[in-house]
Write a structure and sequence with these properties.
By secondary structure, the chain is an alpha+beta fold. It contains three helices and eight strands. The strands form two sheets. A five-stranded antiparallel β-sheet has the order 1-2-3-7-8. The chain has a three-stranded antiparallel β-sheet with strand order 5-4-6, with no helix packed on it. The N and C termini lie far apart (52 Å).
């Protein structure tokens, strides 16, 4: 089962990879993600281009996979409160279940930098899934499936050295 907010920029390429005719395709982008996952599992993430925050329930393995797009166009938050893990695309959705304890390190970062780097949020029990990352539950294993490539500098376009 796949749920989430999905917009794929390479829909036709994925349909070709799945050996489906794009002219006859009547499904959604979530349907494409589901078919890719059924065919290749976590390796299918290398094929996905676009904006998405997805939850995939693998009933055979009894695992939940939370996946965020490469550049973080869509957000995904988790809050572990006792034995329960809450998942939401927006922080305000977690308001009823989260504690009111502030993460003082995140607050300091926000006051200094005007943003909170990493997976921290302003609340101690709420974490943001980083761009290009998936979280496997119940194990709690977070892994990166994509990293931005290093810039390719030519001698003419190289930044000046300080």
């Amino acid at each position: 089962m796949v749920v989430g907010d999905v917009w794929l920029s390479d829909r036709d390429g994925l349909l070709r990879w799945l050996e489906l005719d794009s002219a006859d395709w009547r499904g959604t982008d979530i349907d494409i993600v589901a078919r890719c996952w059924e065919q290749s599992g976590v390796a299918a993430l290398q094929l996905l281009r676009g904006m998405f925050a997805i939850a995939i329930w693998d009933r055979h393995r009894q695992e939940l996979w939370l996946i965020r797009d490469r550049v973080g166009a869509r957000t995904l938050y988790t809050a572990q409160i006792g034995q329960t893990c809450y998942i939401a695309p927006r922080l305000r959705t977690l308001n009823p279940g989260r504690s009111s304890q502030l993460d003082l390190v995140a607050l300091r970062d926000y006051l200094c930098c005007a943003f909170v780097p990493g997976e921290r949020t302003l609340w101690q029990d709420v974490r943001e899934l980083r761009p290009g990352t998936y979280l496997q539950l119940p194990q709690g294993n977070a892994s990166s499936y994509w990293q931005a490539p290093p810039p390719e500098w030519s001698d003419e376009a190289a930044p000046p050295l300080a």
